[in-house]
Records
---
Amino acid sequence: MEPVQLFNQSNLQIQDCGAKGRGIFTTVSIPARTVIDISPILLFPSEEYSTHGQHTQLDHYTYRWKGGMALALGLGSMFNHSSTPNVGFQRDIDNSLIRYSTLREIQVGEELCISYGPNLWFPDMEDSQDQNNSSGGRATNGDVSDSEDETAESFFSRIQLSDDDDDYDHSN
Ligand SMILES: C[S@@+](CC[C@H](N)C(=O)[O-])C[C@H]1O[C@@H](n2cnc3c(N)ncnc32)[C@H](O)[C@@H]1O
């Protein structure tokens, strides 16, 4: 594995988000396409996960991964879901980590959210986060430029795993 530089997260905070539990917020504005976190992952092989992990709290936090399910160690486990995410993520299978990057400029006080995909296992309380959003600038199609939209698309395409990776569905 190649050495991977980790990041100083002093401008990010964990805050209470009411019904969503905890979430990640920024105390500074962040430009589009900024890498905000690199989370090493802990892999649970498919058989171990289906026997044990799937029946525990882990199932609220794990990502589909090649050969099983992965727990992101660090901020990666703390991002809440949004159907209009302002953060995208990219799995680095070879290095057992996930990189998280902003999909558009993010304003001071905004929550940083990723998309969990279409099969949620909880009622989506996304709208309740507006009380924490001083700028009112949640990600919408109107907030991103065409080029940033293309970046979002490339992240989305990676969220949907395929082939042998797709052996576990969070919606079941
Ligand atoms: C990966 S955890 C995110 C961190 C979590 N909020 C915490 O406090 O540990 C995923 C869980 O957060 C909650 N969650 C995330 N996004 C949500 C949303 N849009 N609406 C409601 N609950 C959400 C759900 O309970 C989900 O199972």
Note: Strands lie at 12-16, 22-26, 35-45, 62-65, 68-72, 80-81, 87-92, 97-102, 111-114.
---
Amino acid sequence: MTDPTVPTDPTALPAGAGRLRQNEIYTQGIHGRRPRVPTDHAELERRARRVMSDRAWAYIAGGAGEGSTMAANRAALDRWAIVPRVLRDVSSRSTGIELFGQQLPAPVLFSPVGAGALAAHAADVHIGHAAAELGVPYIFSNQGSAPMETVAAEMDRVRSGAPRWFQLYWSTDDDLVDSLLARAEGMGANAVAVTLDTTMLGWRPQDLNLGSLPFARGEGIDQYTSDPRFTEIVAQRVRAAVGGEKPEISVGAIKTLFSIARNAPGSLMKNLTAPEPRVAVQTFLDIYSRPSLNWDDIAGLRDRTTLPIVLKGVLHPDDARRAVDVGVDGIIVSNHGGRQVDGAIGSIDALAAIAPAVDGRIKVLVDSGIHTGADVFKAIALGADAACIGRPHMYGLALAGADGARDVVANIIAELDLTLGLAGYTSIADVDRDALQRV
Ligand SMILES: Cc1cc2nc3c(=O)[nH]c(=O)nc-3n(C[C@H](O)[C@H](O)[C@H](O)COP(=O)(O)O)c2cc1C
Ligand SMILES: O=C(O)C(=O)c1ccccc1
């Protein structure tokens, strides 16, 4: 028997997404089935911990230093309380928004997450599948576990033209930057997010204590090994290292090695005596990021891509103003999920200062610690145009693959829809600071 309240089309998210989702879950419950992922963040985290390896948990759940930025993200959210309004006819409402010319079902995106292969093989393909089902943009990580073209193809298979962005780490090799940007345009990216807060990796005790860095083991470098410019650099370096003995090393041979490695998880680093894998990993570590990055580079980016440019990792109102002046299209207020600077400002506190400084001139997104629909509501009320979700969708992926990643974000959107209505609002555009009180 089909229940008319259960959406057969998973893309039918707006217009009462909250009640539809509740009904779906309760109907399944009558048949003795539990939801595939917990519907609250605390339980989601606990369950994910049980199925993840120690290394995966350290990398994905871990934060910088003593974890105080992660705590600050939550504390900042908790200092704002929603003050619901009543008797305002909220029977018909929508969580939909417009962003860079696209209509989206909700002010929610999937944050870029690198080295997802620690949680599931070719993680990015599954997350892309999940995002396409929801019609929610997926920001592909530059440190992803599958080539962007493969992820884009999977998304198009689910829903042609499903929204997708590319997140760029600015390499020391400018030709690699151009190559990545050209590929992003080619695979249909709707925007490029340049991450500014990770020019160097933060101090991460959970990983350090295990001696575990995924990239050093060849995990999370698939955007690089699938790149013609990166392949060329590695071939040059291998030739320089062993050229005398192996003059036959060619770009084609390296390309073949990389392609085999991408299809067989972990195989790149199996043969540690061969120079190619070591050179590939060392090359990645040497060139993925350029700490000398500065505002002039960002100003010049306009001439290098036609895509809307979004700066990720902005926390100071002056940097936000500078972003407006330099002519980018948006910023993501973020402390990288508390993974970079320990003791940094909570991203919601930063948002509260930045949104008035930007004053609607460019798009303002936010992430870091935003894990529920109520959190997204608070972010919107404090002036964000949308919020991005990082670890929660990775926990869903670890627990139940693409369906798990999808359900986690669908639950967040469902709760957002209910919070919207129960707080007395019918559209995202109406929600402003009046909805909140500082406590
Ligand atoms: C395991 C992991 C890997 C990440 N990798 C990247 C990355 O490759 N690029 C990037 O810009 N941000 C990366 N981030 C940061 C996220 O995009 C996002 O800012 C953060 O996860 C948001 O906080 P939340 O996890 O509390 O939602 C990563 C975060 C995690 C947890
Ligand atoms: O782990 C991260 O958060 C991340 O973004 C990253 C990026 C480059 C190298 C290592 C980690």
Note: The first strand starts at residue 80 and ends at 82.
---
Amino acid sequence: MLRTLHSVTGLAAAILVVVLALSGAILSVNPVSEWMAAPAVRSGHTEIAALADVVAARRPEVDKIVRTASGTLVVSYFDGTSAGSEVVDPETGAALGPHAPSGFTRMVTNLHRSLLLGQTGRAVAGLGAAAMVILTMSGALMLMARLGGWRAILRPVRGTPMQRWHAGIGRLTMVALLLSSLTGTYMALATFELVPDGSAQASKSSEGVGGPRLPVGKVAALAAVDLADLRELAFPYAGDPTDTYTLTTSRGVSQIDAATGEVLTFEAHAAGSRFYEFVYMLHTGQGLWPLGLLLGLSATAVPLFAATGALIWWRRFKAMPRFPGNASAASAETIILVGSEGGSTWGFAAALHQSLTAAGQRVRTVPMNAIGSPYPKAARMLILPATYGEGTAPASASAFLARLDGLDMRLPVAVLGFGDRQFPRFCGFADTVSAALDARGWPSLLSLCRIDRQSAQEFARWGEDLGVALGLDLNLKAVAARPKTFSLELVRRVDYGAEVQAPTAILSFAMPADSRHGAWWRTLFPAGLPQFEPGDIVGIIPPGSDRPRYYSLASANRDGVLEICVRKQPGGHCSTFLHDLDLGGRIESFIRPNPAFRPSAGKAPLVLIGAGAGIGPLVGFTRHNETGRPIHLYWGGRNPASDFLYREELTECLADQRLTALRTAFSRVPGGGYVQGRLAEDGAELLDMIRKGAQILVCGGRDMAVGVERTLEAILKPAGLDLARLKEEGRYVADVY
Ligand SMILES: Cc1cc2nc3c(=O)[nH]c(=O)nc-3n(C[C@H](O)[C@H](O)[C@H](O)COP(=O)(O)O)c2cc1C
């Protein structure tokens, strides 16, 4: 909803908002130059009468004296047949030079206020300011939701480089842009008298007594007024003996008899006038030039916003799966719901959609989060959820379970899970979805089916079963889409473990040097590593295969390298390829975020447990322990002489206290053991840390993970604690392969 509001407003008003912002940025320099050029009026220093006297002596046909919001005094006068204006010294009344805003400034002012289109333009400019309010507010709310609240405002923004630019500039400028756009909108509304500007109007009816005029210096009503209060003093017209002085001050408007010097009428400004002046000052910076400059500087970011925003939208639009003839919600008989994070499940949904449509069905395919929409003609639902982490929902299904709770609808349903048997909870989210539907009494069209690693054969078989259930001839042909990859170059490798039959390599990759060349803009914006954190996953597609293999990351992109720890598996296609890779060799890779496997915020202790190559992300977490929280690392290898991975770096981390304690276990030394054994030895200390809110992160093989769970349960149970509970609270998270 917010995103739609932000995108639609941005696309509709981009050019208008850019014009307003750039013209505003140019105008923001004016208050500075005025402030530098003209001496300021000092409060209590000069009275209007005395100053007006000097001016009138020099310019007998003076029309008015205006004090601008920046504090400059400007006199308008007639000189025979021509009119002129000059800046005067507020102390002496002496002329300082002509007051002539350049043609350029006038043009930019008109462009900013009315787009050079008169009243209609003023209204459009007002709408532009309102669009800017919507964009800033919706953008700020989206950013907060993404970062996890206002307190997380300084956290690194995740996403593509374009998204990070957009959000990063937003974070820097949002307050200034909100101020500019809110004040601009208020001023536009005041122009059309939709909100008060509070200014009083002189009552037109009053006339002076006539007769010979007093010299302006002798007008009593002016003598009492401090120049710092002046807004405008309009002189009486020479040809009309009863015409009066009109004096506008910060308090109101008075008319003063030119013959007697007495006040005839006084209209106080309404309460809103101070507010309007304040709004005017905030918007223009007149009277507060540093703020004006700051707002102007922020406004220069708007074209960048527009460009990055348009590109983000375009990429999302292009990436949106297209379903030719996607039936409307009102007419669809079959609803296909897709839960995908990486996008591949959409390809399977497209094949299913096509096949059902060809068989004469009216089909609507939408993300799983669209479960709440009304589908009045729907006869069945086919749900295709992928799984992430410990049975977690992918992005397009994040709200599915919550929305399911509020639904009356019960349709025959089939769930087809997509996952990977390498993960301990294979198709875990599909299981959760299927159980939730069961529990709510949705009739089953087909029993739950799970597809391993996007297998086209398993998918086709499920299609046959579905065809039988529906009485349709379905021929499902889906080819797993190859994820979009980027090339990386091996820049460093350290090999361990060959002597103990556990060849393991720490491999560091960087963007290839030639990725800085090519298109001209690459020189300005060299391709950087995409955003990732330790614990995220890199998918690597080895040559001669279409199937990615996943590895946990030991580095963050800000380290400048993508680092993984790979154990060579007997007969393993990808691990053998990686172990044989020479420096300069390349891989095709892509990133999958793994937000579930990450240290929680705060300073509670971390207990990191791993074995073998599972140390990769655990070292990454330790390396980035900027807050100095207690970290206890338990790790198991075979022989310290051969496969003590990251030995030097861990020693450094212990020395500078990023690591509190390192407990190792080696299995192939006399009297050796496993990591579970170390946990058991430290049971009391672990229990104490868990009671203090510690989070446990485990990474490594399945057998080790099972052993660790058993050991921890044995430690927790006697103390009345429960591992399942810790899992629910995200305080026990495992990344197991
Ligand atoms: C970080 C990550 C975590 C994953 N976790 C699981 C899991 O716990 N269980 C599972 O069965 N599959 C898991 N998978 C595999 C995906 O569910 C599978 O590749 C799926 O086909 C992806 O579909 P999508 O591209 O539409 O998101 C994981 C994949 C990644 C990248």
Note: The radius of gyration is 36 Å.
